[in-house]
DNA sequence: TATTGTTATACTCTATAACTATA
DNA sequence: TATAGTTATAGAGTATAACAATA
């Protein structure tokens, strides 16, 4: 949690965390509003508002489902994809700078730990977050 | 960051994250409002309001500085200390449950990684966060 | 009737600007 | 004048309740 906090504070983020998170979900694949609400664990009105803003910013496309008129399919625009890539590059650079002083052995240890942590998270809630 | 998110979502936290964070800072030692604002990286009015609420909830004591009438020294009440301890116990339990399935070797790997990560964070910004 | 999404309204946390009290 | 903190006001994100459209 300290690492997460540090990245959030120091990495000069260019987009608000919850908006970035939504863009990342859509970077994986297109989703409906309901799916996003479930993944992000926020209410329907909340995700609706956030997506509306991202749509206005030109980062997200909205498309009605051809068979079910209630569904709205969201996907990233090219601009949205760029935002995700740029932000990820910023965070990667931040982390790389921090790991520079470590020995190769230490870095290898952290690589193994990262794999382990991913496993633990995936084994848990099948969250797909 | 995925771990932090998961803990925040799943661990049935009993107090809002930013309030908890302030209580943790005061658990370390008493501090003034200005110190808290700097540590938490929020504005003076923001920390002032948060601390006022924690004071109303009975978690924080306020005491004027005997020499400098502008300063307000904040410290935890017994109730505040309990909140921190309880919340930490919840998170520890959450984490312990998640690590149960690992081998002793894997857990040892994670212990070493945690030490390393602490070092990296401390080496960085001398943040005392 | 149930489901998907939006609108109305309110609460919390945040910030900047203006202010009070003390140094 | 400068510093520590508070009050006034506004913006962003969240929630619940009520609503519209579709199945």
At a glance:
2 copies of one chain form a homodimer. With 129 residues, chain A is mainly alpha-helical.
Describe this structure in words.
2 copies of one chain form a homodimer. With 129 residues, chain A is mainly alpha-helical. Chain A has 6 helices and 3 strands, in the order ααβααββαα. The longest helix of chain A is centred in the last third of the chain and has 22 residues, at 78-99. Chain A is elongated and about 55 Å long. The interface between A and B is medium-sized, with 29 and 29 residues. Chain A binds a DNA duplex (23 and 23 nucleotides) through residues 16, 18, 32-34, 42-50, 52-53, 68-72.
In one word, what is the shape of chain A?
A: elongated
Percentage of residues assigned to helices of chain A: 55-70%
Strand content of chain A: 5-15%
Mean pLDDT of chain A: 90
Largest sheet, strands/sense/barrel of chain A: 3 strands, antiparallel
How far apart, in Å, are the first and last alpha carbons of chain A?
A: 17 Å
Spatial ordering of strands, largest sheet of chain A: 1-3-2
Q: What is Rg of chain A?
A: 17 Å
How many H/I helical runs of chain A? 6
**Helix and strand element order of chain A:** HHEHHEEHH
Briefly note the structural class of the backbone of chain A: mainly alpha
Name the descriptors.
homodimer, 129 residues, mainly alpha, 3-stranded antiparallel sheet, 6 helices, 3 strands, DNA-binding
